[in-house]
Amino acid sequence: MGVLPSEELVVIHPADPTVITVNCPDKRGLGCDLTRIIFEFGLSLVRGDVQTDGRWCLLVFWAVPRITTAKPIQWGLLRKRMIAACPPENQVFVPVDPDFVTSPLKLFLLQVYSADRAGLLHDMSRILWELELTVHKVKASTCPDGKVIDFFIISDNKLLLPSRERTLEVCERIKNLMGGLHSKCELKEAGPEYGGLMCTPALNLPPSVSELLSSGVNSQQNGDTPRVTIDDLLSPAHTLLQISCRDRKGLLYDCLRVLKDFNYQVAYGRLSMSTIDKGRGEIDLFITQADGRKLVDPEKQKALCERVVRDVANPLWVTVLPRGPDSELFVATPIELSGKGRPRVLYDVTLALKMLDVCIFQADIGRHAIGDMQWEIYRVLLIDSGDFSQRMHELIGERVRNVLMG
Questions:
Q1: Least confident of 108-122, 146-160, 222-236, 383-397
Q2: Fold agreement between 106-134+144-196 and 197-222+316-405
Q3: Angstrom distance (rounded) from CA 271 to CA 62
Q4: What is the CATH number of domain 197-222+316-405?
Q5: Is the pTM of the predicted complex or chain greater than 0.70?
Q6: Which of 144-153, 204-213, 304-313 ranks highest by mean pLDDT?
Q7: Which residues of 349-363 are buried (b: 16+ CB within 10 A; e: fewer)?
Q8: In 3D, which of 358, 337, 340 has the Cα closest to residue 349?
Q9: Half-sphere exposure (CA, 13 Å, Cβ side) for 235?
């Protein structure tokens, strides 16, 4: 097979469902990276086929917009992002180094000062996403005079910052959103004092949060434990991993994320919706280890099954706890070994609070190492409207979780 022109690497046919075809050189974790982008754009996969010979791959996805996706899908931007995730065309037939490490992200500090209003942080997260900026950390505070000061640690997917034109574009869009003559926006490179994307010990977390996350116990099961089986006899060259579970946001991404973290390669895979049990996803993945061999070690098989069950059944953790006279929302999501956090979390959390008409007093995103896992933890201090009973805590947690999980 010759080298394809870039316009043929990713082909999108908008329809119901939309068909997305990717035909490009292979690399470790490519399926995870592509399904992550599809997830980030608010799309749900109803079917998927993946096949590769280890050098060249063909992936076909059938996708539909999620109900919570209010704006039209930007198909051109989606295609652009997916092409960027594909390996360079000159790497065709070149084995991928499993120890390949991407260069560190260039981080920037965005400071915003404006009048407060309901849903402001949600609108900010939407604008930053539309500007193709990735938010890695947030520190948002409300002042006694009704003003808000927001600090965002961001990276630019366009790789145009810190150019003057790109800086002006970002600040103008944000000022238009904020309105008012007293809004301010400053953008500069983030210095080492902001900590980069390194994980820190969970010293300032409530003991109940850190203890639960470190134990690996999932107390928020959705009542539908996935069925996960491994068969190393069906294929002479591959191990078959079969997963059956309730469909939700990011289902295939979470399955492939686990395999990427274990450094396992997918030779062939299929996602389909069950015709018998509506809303149930069936996933078959023929996998090998990094050395190309089958997965026959019982201990490795057990570890993989346990991790798939945990991360597929519940890839995130949500709770609302009292903090003195106030209430604080906690959302924890695992970080990929590559350093990428879960997409859309800030957008979905703030959307759920906006739907409930719950205002935010402070917000913070931090990365913490707890046990053998790295977590991205979102902490949101809520403005108590006077009726924050235990039932209201449960309602907030339930709504946030439902929006995150779809």
A1: 383-397
A2: yes
A3: 10
A4: 3.30.70
A5: yes
A6: 304-313
A7: bbbbbbeeebbbbbb
A8: 358
A9: 18
Map residue 191 onto helix, strand or coil. Answer: coil
Buried b (16+ CB within 10 A) or exposed e, 91-118: bbeeebeeeeeeeeeebbbbebebebee
Residues with Cβ < 8 Å from 18, sequence gap 6 or more?
A: 12, 43, 62, 63, 64, 73, 75
User: Which residue, chain included where needed, has tokens 């977390």?
Assistant: 205
* Span of 131-135, 189-193, 316-320 with lowest mean pLDDT: 189-193
The 3-state DSSP class for residue 395 equals helix
Could you tell me where the beta strands, DSSP code E, fall in 116-231? 133-142, 147-156, 184-189, 200-201, 227-231
Q: How many CB atoms lie within 10 A of CB 204?
A: 11
Q: Is the dihedral of CA 129, 131, 132, 133 positive or negative?
A: negative
Q: What residues have CB less than 8 Å from 3, skipping those under 6 apart?
A: 89, 90, 92
Q: At what angle do helices 251-261 and 298-313 cross, to 10 degrees?
A: 150
Q: State how far Cα 404 lies from the chain centre.
A: 10
3 state DSSP class of 152: strand
258: which 2 tokens? 């686990």
Q: Read off the DSSP letter of residue 379.
A: E
In this predicted structure, what is the pLDDT of residue 179?
80
In the block, which residue shows the tokens 């109900």?
67
Please tell me which residue, 387 or 378, carries the higher pLDDT value. 378
Residue 33 pLDDT > 90, yes or no? yes
| Residue-range domain boundaries for the chain | 10-92+225-312, 106-134+144-196, 197-222+316-405
Helices (H) and strands (E) in the chain, counts: 10, 17
Highest CATH level, class, for 106-134+144-196 = alpha beta
Residue 69: pLDDT over 70? no
Summarize the confidence of residues 361-390 as an average pLDDT: 84
**Residues whose CB falls within 8 Å of the CB of residue 184, separated by 6 or more in sequence, listed in order:** 111, 112, 113, 114
pLDDT band at 325 (very low <50, low <70, confident <90, very high): confident
